[in-house]
């Protein structure tokens, strides 16, 4: 029996060849993302250009998907090297292109007209504007997880679930919920490496209202959070650390960077390794 169990575990490990399949950056918090082939990890742990900008109202509050479903109607494309954003405003016939540094006032005026209240764009090149400032590293999810979760909601595609979850790095070559190996019991961090970049897995990300809404229209999916939590609990692998789950509306993993990896580059196809605890 022990030999058979060992053989099964060995086959499982051989079958799993985790690799970095996608890198997604969100240059302006809550707007559309951009898929890239590589990304630099800066000293804070964030990916360069990710959530580098955020929109704020006149009371210095985030204008984001949590507070304003209307933001889902905006379509944005980014040219990172040129430092430009192309915006398509609902009802408009064409895209408007703005330089993020040189034409910021014009961009703010356009966004203010769209939201119908004054907004401004703030920049943080050192860490961006992550939801979790204690773990500002890239959020991690697997392709198989996105497919599994999408299957819980008739009519939702894998790409739509990807847009709703807004994770930075996506791992393939693994089964659903593989990324749950990247956290342990509360207080215990898990070391893992992507290419030659060393990270610490912290905890499963607590989700907000954003995934409940259509990423293009802002319309809520009925009972999304209730369905999600029920299915997440039912499909939670028995090897997953349970203490981080004070509720089951959690998906993807928050991370921190080991200081020695600051400035290194993540590249599509990078091998992913988890270090023994």
Automatic annotation (TrEMBL):
Domain MOSC: 104-275
Signal peptide: none
Pfam families membership: MOSC, MOSC_N
GO molecular function, one term: molybdenum ion binding
InterPro entries, sorted: MoCF_Sase_C, MOCOS_middle
Top-level taxon: Bacteria
Protein name: MOSC domain-containing protein
């Amino acid at each position: 029996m022990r030999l058979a169990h060992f053989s099964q575990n060995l086959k499982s490990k051989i079958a799993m060849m985790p690799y970095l399949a996608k890198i997604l950056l969100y240059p302006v918090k809550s707007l559309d993302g951009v898929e890239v082939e590589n990304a630099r990890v800066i000293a804070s742990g964030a990916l360069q250009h990710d959530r580098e900008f955020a929109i704020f109202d006149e009371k210095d509050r985030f204008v984001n998907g949590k507070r304003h479903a209307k933001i889902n109607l905006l379509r944005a494309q980014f040219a990172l090297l040129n430092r430009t954003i192309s915006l398509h405003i609902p009802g408009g016939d064409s895209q408007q292109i703005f330089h993020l540094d040189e034409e910021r006032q014009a961009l703010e005026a356009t966004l203010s007209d769209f939201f119908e209240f004054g907004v401004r764009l703030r920049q943080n090149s050192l860490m961006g504007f992550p939801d979790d400032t204690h773990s500002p590293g890239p959020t991690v999810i697997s392709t198989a997880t996105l497919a599994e979760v999408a299957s819980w909601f008739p009519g939702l595609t894998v790409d739509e679930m990807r847009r709703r979850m807004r994770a930075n790095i996506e791992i393939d070559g693994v089964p659903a919920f593989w990324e749950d190996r990247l956290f342990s019991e509360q207080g215990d961090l898990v070391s893992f490496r992507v290419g030659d970049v060393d990270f610490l897995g912290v905890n499963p990300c607590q989700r907000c209202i954003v995934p409940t809404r259509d990423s293009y229209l802002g319309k809520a999916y009925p009972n999304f959070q209730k369905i999600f939590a029920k299915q997440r609990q039912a499909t939670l692998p028995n090897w997953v650390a349970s203490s981080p789950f004070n509720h089951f509306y959690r998906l993807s993993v928050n991370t921190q960077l080991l200081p020695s990896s600051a400035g290194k580059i993540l590249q599509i196809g990078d091998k992913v390794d988890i270090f023994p605890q």
